[in-house]
Amino acid sequence: MTMYTDRVFRNETVNVDDNTYERCEFEFCRIVYAGGPAPRLLKNNFESCEFVLDGAAGRTLAYIRGLYLGGARDLAEDFITAIRTPDDELPPRDPSKGPQR
Question: How far apart are CA 11 and CA 9, in angstroms?
Answer without folding.
Answer: 7
